[in-house]
Amino acid sequence: MGGGAEVTLGEAQRAELIEAARSAARHAYAPYSDYSVGAALLFEDGAVITGCNVENASYGLALCAETVAVAKALGEGRRGGLVAVAVTGPTDKGDGAPITPCGRCRQVLNEIAQLGATDPLVLCVGTERTESVSLSDLLPRAFGPANLA
Question: pTM score, two decimals?
């Protein structure tokens, strides 16, 4: 993705971003899967934009939390500047392992990251631990706006 220096977050900043994602998950509309997901995007200016998953009776029309957050950010005029992302799922479902963005969401996150030439840190939150990984490690050799220039 060509982004600059490796992103590091202090413990307090990590905790705040994770809490923002957890708070967003409480607003999820997930009547079919009963699997509420929250995402929080941190930008260079300190702004945090959140999103939650929104399901639909026509299952293919469901929106992931990360996609909702990116759409909100773009709708507010943000073009790049993405520093970090936190993704949380329910604490009472699955095996408690850290969850990662799905492939579609990795691509959506890549779009806004490439607009600002960043390689955001992705906090994949589980019940017992959080894994930190760069977006470029989650989506190597990504296709994006630079490929169309």
Answer: 0.93
